[in-house]
Amino acid sequence: MLIIHKYGGTSLADSTRIKEVAKRIKKESQKGDDLVIVVSAPSGMTNQLLEQASEICTTPSLREVDMMLTTGEQLSASLLSLALQDIGVDAISFNSFQINMKTTNTYGSAKLREIKSDRIFTEIAKKKVVVITGFQGINEHNDFTTLGRGGSDTTAVAIGVCLNADMVEIFTDVDGFHTADPRLVKNAIQVPYLSHSEALEMASLGAKIMHDRSVALAMKYGINLHVRNSYNDNKGTIIGEAKMEEIKLNGVAHSNKNALINIMGQNISSATIGKIFTRIKDLNINISNISKTQDADNYQQISMLLESDENIERFIKYKDEIIQNKDNEINAIEINQDVAKVSVVGFAVRTSGVFAQIWQELTSNNIDILMVSTSDLSISSVVKLADMEKAVQILHKKFFETANSI
Amino acid sequence: MLIIHKYGGTSLADSTRIKEVAKRIKKESQKGDDLVIVVSAPSGMTNQLLEQASEICTTPSLREVDMMLTTGEQLSASLLSLALQDIGVDAISFNSFQINMKTTNTYGSAKLREIKSDRIFTEIAKKKVVVITGFQGINEHNDFTTLGRGGSDTTAVAIGVCLNADMVEIFTDVDGFHTADPRLVKNAIQVPYLSHSEALEMASLGAKIMHDRSVALAMKYGINLHVRNSYNDNKGTIIGEAKMEEIKLNGVAHSNKNALINIMGQNISSATIGKIFTRIKDLNINISNISKTQDADNYQQISMLLESDENIERFIKYKDEIIQNKDNEINAIEINQDVAKVSVVGFAVRTSGVFAQIWQELTSNNIDILMVSTSDLSISSVVKLADMEKAVQILHKKFFETANSI
C-alpha cells in the first residue's frame, strides 16, 4: 500500500519531537507500506519569520514573504530525513521545486495545480521514505508560493491524489474528530468514521481538526483520510465514502470568530439592497448566513453572519461607507462581535424534530437564539458568545449522552 | 555599469544590520548603476542548523545537510529584498533554482558550473535590484548543493563572470587588504590596489579578507574585485590586472592553522617515499611545502607543512598506519602543530636580498626558522606559533615602516 503521512508544526517543533515522529514512521514503514511524508514548518517558526519581516518592512511584498516562509518546511523536511536516516530508514527530502509542485500565481493563498510524481516514484521504488515540504509550491514564474490556511493538509491530500495513494493519514495533536470539542464537553465521544461531507460540515462549522479545504479536495477525488494523534496510537477518525442509508448525528461543532450584522431601515428599496450585496462581493467579504425580516410598517432588518477576522475587519471599514452615503435608506448598522455559532451536524438533522429539540433545549436554558441556519447536514444556531460553551454542552448532552440520543 | 555586491553573514545578522545594508544599496543604486546582490546566511544560523542536525543524526547525510543549510541564504535574500522595498528600492530575490545555478554533484563542496542569466537580466531591465542566494547551487539531480569555504564570494564572482559585470564588490568587516593584519601590527597600511595574483598569494598565505578560491576565479576571467568595509565608506582594495613592471612588496601574511610533519629514518628507499606520497594523495591530504634532507650516514628527514584542520586530522590518522606497517624503514614521525607560517608577499621578493633580509631580521631576534618556501610572489618562513606575532611585526617594520623599505 502507498500511504501519505502529514505532520503539523507542533509534531516537528524541536529535535526531540522530530525523533519521535521518525520512530513512528519507522514503525509504520516496517509494515511494508510505501510512505510519503508531508511536513509543515516547525511550530513557531512562521510567526518568528513574519515578526522579523514586520521589523524590516511595513508592508511586506507577498512574493518575498513566501520566499521567506518556504524555508520553514524545507528545514522540517531535511531534519526529518536526517532523523529517519539516523535510525536506519533510508529517506530523501524534496521541496516544491524538486517535484514541480505547481500552483496558481497568487502569493500567500495559492491553489495547487499539478505535481510531477516521477521523482517521488523513483525514490519509492528504491524503498526510500520520501519527505515533502507542505504548504508551498511554485507558480508559473518559478517563484515560491504558499497555500494559506490548511496548506499542509491540502498538500498531503493533493500528493495522495497525484500518487493515487491508498490512504492519507493526517497526524495532529488530538485523537481525530469528536462529537464536540473535548475541552468544552468532557463526555465528548471520539468519532471513528465520518463521510467526506460530514467531515466537511464539521470542519467548516468550526471543528479545528482539519481545514475544510483539504477535506473538500479529498471528497472531490474520493481520497480516504485518517486523522490520528501523533502522540499516541489511538484509532482516530477515518474519513471516507458515505455509508448508504446511515442516518445519524455526528457531533456539535462551534465557532467563535463571528460577527452578526444587522442593517435596519424604513422602506429600503430592492435596488439599495442589491447595491449593498454587490459591494460586499466586490470587497471580498464572505457572508455565511443571511436573513431578512420586515414588519407591517415596512421596517426592514437584514441580518448577516460573518466568519473570520478578515471578513469582519473588511465589513467594519465598509460600514462607514454605507453610513456616509446620503442616498441610502439605511437607518442603522449594528455589528455584534460577541456572538458564536453552535451547530448540530449529521445526516439525521433532516429527520423531523431535531430543530424543535435544539430550540427547546436552548431556550429552556435561557439561551437566546439570535439567528438560525440549516443545511442538508447541519442546523446552526447563533448565540451570544457568553452562552456558547453552555449551548455546546446542553446540545451534546441532549443528542449524544442520553437514552433519547438519535 | 553593472555592479555585483556581496554581503557576508555578519552584515546580515539581524534586522538592524539588514536595514543598514539596504540603505547602502539604495545609495549605490541612486548613482544609476544596475545592481545584483549576493548574500550569505545570517551569521550564526549555519552553526545553529548544524548543531540541530547533530542533535538529530550522528552521521548526517551531506545531501540533507545541504538541503537544510540552503534555507539560510534564502532567508537573507528575502529579508534584504523586503528591507529594500521598504525604503522604496524595487527588489526581487532568487534562490539557486530560480536562476538555474548549476554545480557539480558533490554535496558540501560543489563547484559552480553554469548560471542562467536571462531572468536576472529581465529583472535588471525593469530597474530592479536582484538579490541572489550565495554559497549554494543545484546539481544535475536538481538537489541543493553548497559550495563549501568561501562559497558566497565565489558565487559573487561567478555571477560577475556570467553577467559580464563591471565590478564585483565584496563587502566585509574590514577596509580591504592591509600590509599586515591590523590586529597584530598597529602600523599596518591599507593597500589600495593589488593584482589578482598578488591578492591570491596574500589570500592563500593567510590574509583572511577573501577566500583564495574566489580570487582565483576572478583572475581566471579577468573580473575586477573591490573589497570594502560594509560598516564605512573607506576606499578598500581594488583587485585587478597587474600593473606592468611595478615591483613592490604587498604585505606580510600569516597563518596559524599549520602542522609541521617530520618523517625520519635510516636508508628510507625511494619506493617507500613514493608509497607514502601516493597514500597521502589518496587520503586527500594537501601538503603546502615539502623539503628533504639527508646526512652522510644516509639518515633522512622528510619535512612537510600541512594547512587546515582537515589535513592535519587526516594525517594524524595516517600516522598510525605508517607506524604499524612493519615493512617501513621509518624510525619516527613527528607532528608539530605549534607552528605558524609568516609570508612576505609581492613581486619584489624576486629581487635579490629580500630573503637575506628576512633571515637576518628573524634570526637576530631569536626567532627560529623551521622551514622556508618560496614562490614567484612570496617567501614564507615557518616559525614557532609563539613567535608568529613578533615575526609579523618585525618583518612589517623592516619592509613597510622604515626608510629602507622597498
Secondary structure layout:
Two copies of one chain form a homodimer.
Chain A: E1 2-7, H1 15-29, E2 34-39, H2 45-56, H3 62-86, E3 91-94, E4 102-103, E5 112-114, H4 118-125, E6 129-133, E7 136-138, E8 144-146, H5 151-163, E9 167-172, E10 193-195, H6 196-204, H7 212-221, E11 225-229, E12 237-240, E13 251-266, H8 270-282, E14 287-294, E15 299-307, H9 309-324, E16 332-345, H10 354-364, E17 371-374, E18 378-384, H11 388-400
Parallel strand pairs in A: 1-2, 1-9, 2-6, 3-6, 9-11, 10-12
Antiparallel strand pairs in A: 4-5, 7-8, 11-12, 13-15, 13-16, 14-15, 16-18, 17-18
Helix pairs in contact in A: 1-3, 2-3, 5-7, 6-7, 10-11
Question: How would you characterize this protein structure?
Answer:
Two copies of one chain form a homodimer. The first copy, chain A, is α/β, with parallel strands linked by helices and 406 residues long. Chain A is 36% helix and 27% strand. The first copy, chain A, is built from eleven helices and 18 strands. In chain A, the strands form four sheets. In chain A, strands 3-6-2-1-9-11-12-10 form an eight-stranded mixed beta sheet, sandwiched between helices. A six-stranded antiparallel beta sheet of chain A has the order 14-15-13-16-18-17. In chain A, helix 2 runs antiparallel to helix 3 and helix 6 (196-204) packs antiparallel against helix 7 (212-221). The mean pLDDT of chain A is 89. Chain A binds chain B through residues 15, 18-19, 49, 52-53, 55-61, 63-65, 67-68, 70-71, 74-75, 77-79, 81-83, 85-86, 92-93, 95, 97-98, 142-143, and chain B through 15, 18-19, 49, 52-53, 55-61, 63-65, 67-68, 70-71, 74-75, 77-79, 81-83, 85-86, 91-93, 95, 97-98, 142-143.
